[in-house]
Amino acid sequence: MEKINENNLLQKARNGDVGAFEELTTEYYSKVYSICYRMLNNTEDAYEQAQETFIKAFKYIKDFKGNCAISTWLYRIATNVCLDFIRKHKNKKVISIEQNTFSGPGFSETKLSFSCKSSKVFCSMEITFLFLCFLIKSRHTLVAIL
């Protein structure tokens, strides 16, 4: 993007022009997403944090002093957003299991995830779920007493 056009769009965005900010977003989205993906190594989280980056940028664009390139400013916001996300989720353990055991009419792919605060010990839901997966894969039946 030309420096003159970028500065023009930046000035318009500072004055509240959503269209100008949308053009800046279109220009830098793939680079911001790449930063988020490299930091988080998860496509869904990277997508969400890239969106969060542009939300924060729009909210604080009037505070942008212009002493660096807009790209540098956006990349710094993206880095901080991802670091905040990592800090917020560092003690959570997420297990995501996909199974195609039930295929055919009326069944779809099952995707389940559980979170535990401990990274070393399985929570009771995870143990129960893993046991049920073992039973299903072993083609045993489960009898539950309520």
Structural overview:
By secondary structure, this protein is mostly helical. The protein has two domains: 3-89, RNA polymerase sigma factor, region 2, helix turn helix motif (Rna Polymerase Sigma Factor, Chain: A, Orthogonal Bundle), CATH 1.10.1740.10; 93-137, no CATH class. The protein is 60% helix and 10% strand. It contains five helices and two strands. The chain has helices at 3-14, 18-40, 43-60, 70-89, 124-137, and strands at 93-99, 110-116. A two-stranded antiparallel ribbon has the order 1-2. α1 (3-14) packs across α2, α2 packs antiparallel against α3 (43-60) and α2 (18-40) crosses α4. The longest helix has 23 residues, at 18-40. The radius of gyration is 22 Å and the shape is elongated. The chain starts with a helix and ends in a 9-residue tail after the last helix. Mean pLDDT is 76; it is low at 99-103, 107-114, 116-120 and 139-146.
Question: What would CATH call the homologous superfamily of the largest domain?
Answer: RNA polymerase sigma factor, region 2, helix turn helix motif
Mean pLDDT: 76
Q: Could you estimate the helical fraction of the residues in percent? A: 55-70%
Beta content comes to 5-15%
- Per DSSP, the total helix count is 5
